[in-house]
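Narrative progress, year one. The postdoctoral researcher (J.K.) led the effort to move from monomer predictions toward full complexes, under supervision of the PI. The following entry was the first complex the group processed end to end, covering 646 residues in total.
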Amino acid sequence: MDKIGVLVAFKPLPYLEQELTRRGCRLFRLWETPESPVLEFCRQNAADIQAIVGNSNYGADAAMIDALPKLEIVASFSVGLDRVDLPKCKERGIRVTNTPDVLTDDVADLAIGLAISVMRRIPSADKYARSGAWKKGEYTLTTRFSGKRVGILGLGRIGLAIAKRAEAFDCPISYYSRSDKSHPNYTYHSTPVDLAANCDILVVACALTEETHHIVNRAVIDALGPKGVLINIGRGPHVDEPELVAALVEGRLGGAGLDVFENEPHVPEELFALDNVVLVPHVGSATIETRTAMADMVLGNLEAHFLKKPLLTPVV
Amino acid sequence: MSSSPSLTAAGVSITTSNGSSLSDLPPILVLRPLSDAWSSALSAKFTVISPSSPLSTSTHAALVSAAYNKVDPALLDQYPSLKCIATTSVGVDHIDLEECRRRGIQVANVGEIFTKDVADYAVVLLIDVMRRITMSDRYVRNGLWMTRGDYPLGSKLRGKHVGIVGLGSIGSAIAKRLEAFGCKISYVSTKPKPTVKYKYIPNVYDLATESDILVVSCSLTKETHHIVNKQVLQALGKEGIIINIGRGANIDEPELVRCLVQGEIKGAGLDVFENEPDIPKELFKMDNVVLTAHQSALTPEAMSDIIQICIANFEAFFAGKPLLTPVMAD
């Protein structure tokens, strides 16, 4: 990939940055110049940028694509492509790749970890233990996870991996999906509200599209109810965040485990005082093993494109 | 129910709202304080007899607890008609099982009531340490995601070797859960279990050598006191993690603390300690440990299950059927 100009939209894994450099790429580090507007940066370097490496927060919208006439490929360091204007890429003949499968396990592990952590109030219990309060009394009882009804929004790779793990805890599984998948063991619900009304733990595991924007809205939150728990390992905009915060603060929702937020890294501060929420900083795929595998996939896709070989994981 | 039972309602016949006479319901001698939940559950099916009642010496069944009662020859002499004792605990250290056997008294504990909740807790502590859930939650709440950027990366679960110390009901439940995450399970146990598909390793040292994560889920006996010692921790190694939902004394705690302080093991998830409620203060500063106050079994569902299993055991006894969760003298 000698002298290929690559716009890196976010601060990358050191391994990824080293490998891009080692293979001869010229890196345009968008993340290093936060003051400079994105479009200005693009125009200044338009003659050289042939590839973009984006992630779940930084992709390629129509304006960026228009500003980069030499752009040939967007290789996203994520599986979600809600930040990439896919129709525009298709129109311009720009290839788009993502990183499916390698991160499925980590995201599913986190979803279940968050669910049990919320039910058993682990961060709060840890804080209690460290405070010395145990000498004065026991921590409160915390709700059992095993056997609770798990409802999954989206039964794709990640949704199925979550279901498989939850089954090991004897959790009955139900789901909402654009169509009934006729799964032998899992119950289909034709609307998100119906799913929420019939589960104890609702997990968001679908892709973010126009249709699924705010799929978890006031009606769904009300249906989930004061004993219900919401787990979001999808995208912040899947959930109407102000509604979620109000429901949690007012006790209309039982709890939440959140890996993603509408405006990362901003997390609504009203949540900080609550014992029934667990808040993590978009770490769904954040293991050294998975991030390295994702980097290899990005590198593999870029190399395949510039060597005119078949892409590993093309979406467009 | 319109009438309420009382520990002093000795021998008084009370009619319940459904018309049956309380004195028709089989009597249970209650030798421990009762919460409202216990009172109403028991008196729906039994007549609650207090120790001060003249009926206490002719009652055949009794409810005891580990915290309040010592079932020894003296107590059994006080209540000579007892034929069935149910304790609200798993442990039976407080009951002279041999004496009960000699007198023809059946004993029931609560069986495997805590298995699910304790297994869930072991799994969540393991995921938490590997994926840094509690620590990154703290990071977010301290506003550091805004100012410092991403939290350091965690470790993937799939493919990791998990060594389970003690493959009883809880150890097996932990194994079943972790298999779904793609972990490879090995175990050490008093005897190998030929029907089990996991790899049996003859001693804890060898298990630790092979394991990325050690989960302690055995009971505390002379043999298992400090079963995780300095050599085992060294064998677990710098990348190793230990989870303890057994008993604090299963691990040499000062040695564990030293290993964590010196970075000789990578992290720990601990629900139990040698000198509860004291937790070694050196652990409070660490972000590679998760600490909880011996609460793995403490769910409202388990508390309700305890009541249900005791009632079920008493019902079986009065129906002349085998107890559901009998405990035998060795």
